Amino acid sequence: MHPKYRPDIDGLRAVAVASVLAFHAFPDALPGGFIGVDIFFVISGFLITTIIMQSHAASDFSYRDFYARRIRRIFPALMLVLAATLAFGWYALLPREFAELGKQAAGGAAFVANFIFWGESGYFDTAAETKPLLHLWSLGIEEQFYIFWPLLLGVAWRRRWPMVRLLWVIAVASFLVNVTTIHPFREAAFYSPLSRFWELMVGGILACMRMKPVAPNVWRSHLQSVLGVALIVLGLVMTRSDKAFPGWWALLPTLGAVSCIAAGPTGVLNKYVLSNRVMVWIGLISYPLYLWHWPLLVYARIVEEGHPSAWVRAGAVVASVLLAWATYRFLERFTRARTSVGMLRTLGGSGVAVALVGVLALGGMPPRNGSDLLRKVTDATVDDNYYDGFKQEKLGAHKVERTGNGARKVLLIGDSHVQQYAPRALELARSAPGQMATAYFATYGACPPVPGVLSDGNEGCDKARTGMLELALDPQIDAVVVGACWNCYFTGNFPLAFYFQDGASAYPINNGGPGLGRSLDALEKLLTTLVQSKKKVYLLLDNARSVEFEPRRLIEGSRMGQMTALTSTATGPLPPEQAQLNERLKRIATSSGAEAIDVLAQLCKSGECVRSMPDGTPVYKDREHLRPFYVREHAGYLDKVFLGGGGR
Which of 95, 156, 349, 388 is surrounded by the most beta carbons within 10 Å? Predict the structure, then answer.
């Protein structure tokens, strides 16, 4: 049994999908547009629960029929988009990119995409803008909800449990998981079904409450309609992607959507705005429109090798609308009208086929541009398992990564430019266990180990740095290595804005700002303090950092044509400002009594720094991080730290 058709709900779908499209294509124009997904969750929860509960009331609910309807609803458009995305990916992507797409496609076909992207999230994660199927995380959460929700409602119905109260308890528990994990485990809160189910449950609770007809009240409907739209607009205007979302912010779109649905089709804005013919038409194609828009925008970015122009993005949106209409008109309506077992088998078989192609792509099936050298270059971009093989443990009250078991204890503190040397420590622990010290790594991404240096875009840095410095002064530590991406913070061109906090005053650091000198003075003071504590102190200087060191700079050609990897340019130029900073840091090390580890002296010669091996294998993972493979075999300049006798 299906609920009576309501055009205003299709209009609400239009608001949701239009918000998402606007945010993805023009994020500055509608920075809160991503909340459209949360509106979809509420709508889905309401409609599915209504269908289930009305079927139970009529004593004709069947799990087989329920999931058959879900397959006919979800599979046709999804499998078409997955197949098209894989086909274009085979033509335009490079080997590692195509393998990653295969994993995304297999996860999307199996409705576990949210878990895949959750597992990939992290400091070294590939940019979201280059993942063609990232948007399928929300579909994964919906389908996971549909696994347990009918079972729960069925048990509650048969046993005559107090349905609404039970659902409120579960929804509140899910909401509490959301708000308690959003700060310490932001990726988990975003992708986990446990922290998202409450949004679908809110719609479900409304459906259960409406099983008993509500006495009509015109003014109540008008008020709910206006309140619902107002909350959604408020969410679109106030919510930002850099805020703790979902968290408490998700209440705006969720309560807004449920208020609009509760208003009914006679609510003033529901009747005259959401039920508008244009809004209803967009709502009818909203599902395929959501599926098509993101791959088109991502492929536009990939083909353009950067941020596409506004005209290109607008063209991608128009194309997604046309493809969505064609998908709805010629595919979705065709498959929904055919309820035979043969159609279900065909749809199920298409899902298996797409998942199989995805697995083959992940396993090494080459794309069109799939030479061995191109594969070497693109493999470098995902070579980031720096702490693989380490043991995470606590040193006092602080978490550290450890390798080695020597009596001498060495602590390395800093950001990812210290973390990148973990493979060398692990290799020495394997090859020279008798000489190897006990090495502890305490790092935090984009967090310079200099007191007073802050960035509003990295809120956890100050707390993490405090822990690092407490560890550095611990009497059981014999030697301390202080390192960071000094070129990131002190020579500019870094995404985050850093400043030096001195009392109530904040001095900008980036691009040689007035806080630079204060920051370097604070670094020298820190090194002096550590030296005075009778420890051996090293200042780990930086490797070269430039777009010239990105592995993809070794690739020539066009995405729509042929692409080849270069072997003739094994070095890249050292930016002069980085050479100047390197000399300044060496002087600071000398004046404080620390020993400088000059990385540039090892990697660079006559202003040129190594970026690939003789066989064309890249040395860098990206524009600034050395690869684990290179560090493991060639970072011998750190051996004196791990094997030397430089203790107290």
Answer: 95
